[in-house]
What does this fold into?
Amino acid sequence: MSAALPKLPIHDLPTPEPESPFRPRKPYRFSTLCATVENPSNKDQFGSSSVPIYQTATFKGVGGEYDYSRSGNPTRSHLEHHIAKISSAAHAFAVSSGMAALDVILRLLKPGDEIIAGDDLYGGTNRLLTYIRTHVGVTVHHVDTTNPSTLLPLIDVTKTAMVLLESPTNPLLKIADLAKISKDIKERAPDAIVVVDNTMMSPYLQRPLEHGADVVYDSATKYLSGHHDLMAGVITCNRDDVAKARQIAFTINAVGNALTPIDSFLLLRGIKTLAVRMDRQQSSASQVATYLHSLGFVVHYPGLPDHPGREIHQRIADGNGAVLSFETGDKGLSEKIVGGTRLWGISVSFGCVNSLISMPCVMSHASIDPATRAARGLPEDLIRLCVGIEDPSDLLDDLEHALIDAGAIQLDVSQNKYVKVRQVEDDAISRAVGKLGLKDTDGDHEWFVSAPGKVILFGEHAVVHGVTAIAASVDLRCYGLTTPRLDGKISAHFTDIDNFYCEWIIDDLPWHVVKPIAIDEEHPEILDQVLVDALNTGPLKDLTEAQRHARAASIAFLYMYLVLTRGDVRPSFNFTARSTLPIGAGLGSSASFSACAASALLLLHKRISIPPLPAPTTSEHIHISHQGRRAIPPAVAEEVNRWAFVAEKILHGNPSGVDNSVAVFGGALAYTRPGFERKSGMEGIAGFKSFKFLLTNSKVPRDTKKLVAGVGQKKIDEPETVAGLLNSIQSISDEARRALADPEMPREVLLAAISTLIRENHTHLVSLGVSHPALELIRSTTGAAPYSLSTKLTGAGGGGCAVTLIPDDFKEETLKALLDEIVAQQFDPYLTSVGGSGLGILSPHRTTGSAAYLPPGQVTPPETPSPGGGGVNLCPVFQAKRVLELSQWADSLGRWLYV
Ligand code: PLP
It folds into this structure.
């Protein structure tokens, strides 16, 4: 019979002896264990029914069990024994707060160790992790622990020392599969310690030690205490090596953060009612979650049927807890709701018998900077509810009043019930559009956009070492056209990347991993790697290594399409990009593509819109692109730039942001990298005058990384020489910047000054070892009589392009002769102006008399079908135009608006 007995948890409250061999007694259930504080090896001398408070610092005598309360105290021992019992633990420790518990645990680490931690952790946990990262030299990786596979690439048997998990997380109630993660870690890095913050659940609802965790801690300030009348933290552990000797017990004694006798007493008293409190609290929480869900709010609670982690949670936990959160769609509205409740106390923390309401982003999680909050998908409008033991009807009643008063719900007379006010989301959208100073247009799917490339005029290479670089836009542009499709597909056609074309069924895209970005939210600093991976392994899985450039461009395009999508509106269209810029020649072709893709997607998703055009004052056709300069409002440009930067991150990993800024804002700017003595940042050069430049593509391919590394090595080998060169280049950038912005300087003086600076900068670049015989040939050709022009390499050098300044009075025929000579040398010359307009958008509606552009619906059938099959007239012509004709044709279509 005894073989049939269930396995006993590790605790020593004895199950009474079997009454008879045929009627065995079962081990005590949790609430019995909670209420029964008994330690057979530590009986009270007077038989007191509650553990006395040994309010003493020292104990008399030598060799007794206790000598000093920092090291040990009978009240605390009772508490620790009790906690071990209810946590299935061999060891338990009580310290002064939850954070003190984490601090003790983190002291198990040493410099060079790595932690893998969740990305939705309690704010104070993040603060302490940041501290040990910056002060102790421990690397912290934050990952989305809802997907155990995201941890795998980070596990390193020699470095991974700890994994820190919360489940459910606070406040988004995301679920981590503690059992699976613990198993994965044990298999791959057996020495790593799996730590779980179990505060949200308490040992009543979840005992992670039973699922393979090594160390568990709780902020006992919460459910264990239950009354918000003390601060405490508890640590439980089954590993003797971690618990004893020089580890947890040692640290607590050494730093002296053990729980005081009086707080130990209070905590012990609180724990006795843990199970009853929790039962009531979670039953009410479930009612509140169901109520909010039925109103139409996005509710995070593992007890709801649509919670993504529900199944895992049910496997590892015994209940859903009493914390939930919901989104209203608007931060201001959330503030009104929180301020409108009476019974729900506005307070940080949770776990108390009284119900609490809070907005994590302005309260408990305010210590996390907004960008990181956004990166971790924490909505600014999120409201957290921590349900107490009051009567659930009163709690629901109070919440309903607050929702009505705030205007979040209203009575739907037809259904005779309250429903969420639908305008909530639309209000937020129109407010955000309002912020951009725009009207939300109807918009259709046909938009024509363009953005310029850039040249670095001064400071390339030196910029890597903290010297200021001057970059300016060139009048060679990337063009992007969106054409509607009617078949639920999205397609991309990158004409300049081996004429790449691919189409995808919109509903088959990896929507399940998309964390949409609300209209007034910025993209997090870090890319969503899960989404990038899902694109690589899903829609782009068939692309070959040879198609890596097309793959990168497709990821950038689809990534933005997915995260920018609003609600269920998923526009179906084709995007064709073409460039008049040479690709991969250091002229910012990728940034101009990024700006085009970003602006097209923002327009299609109606996140930006362009202001209506003023009525034309003349019937003459406007050909000059600069006519529309500054017609695109700065707020729109900035939004496009933010997203172009996201695309650049996808394409390049760690871009400086210079190229996309030039592509969007045009003109010229000075850029200094952060991390050096000089003031860092990016500054537009106001009043920059446009110059004519000849760009000559040597067509020699470059390895930018190798060239940059070469300069770095030279800096190590010949520090003084390189320091001298860097200083000289800084002076050139400073002088150029002053001259370019000086309104008083006569044009010919300015041109002469720039010409000299170009020559000087090139000489320094030669000394840095980044020129190439082809570039030197271009330089000597352009510098020889009768041309006598100044030329320098631009960008990484070692090939790529050279730039030659063309004075205003340079004769046409001489220029033609020069171009012929360059072509004869097998180089590609491009005549362009530098410092012109940034992003351009062609209104999709006809505005000028002679435009060749017809809006959708008034189409003449295309001679060649567009890849999308949408049958709109502009696309086939766009694709068929020769590169040399492209700009002029685009200009002729109508009035472009420019930044
Ligand atoms: N862990 C979680 C999940 C928490 O919510 C908190 C506090 O809010 C802590 C740890 C820190 O606990 P304490 O405030 O007791 O230091």
Observations:
- The two ends are 84 Å apart (CA to CA).
- Confidence is low (pLDDT under 50) at residues 1-12, 423-443, 614-628, 845-872.
- The chain has four domains: 31-272, 273-420, 443-613+622-688+875-898, 691-834.
- The CA atoms of residues 497 and 550 lie 6 Å apart.
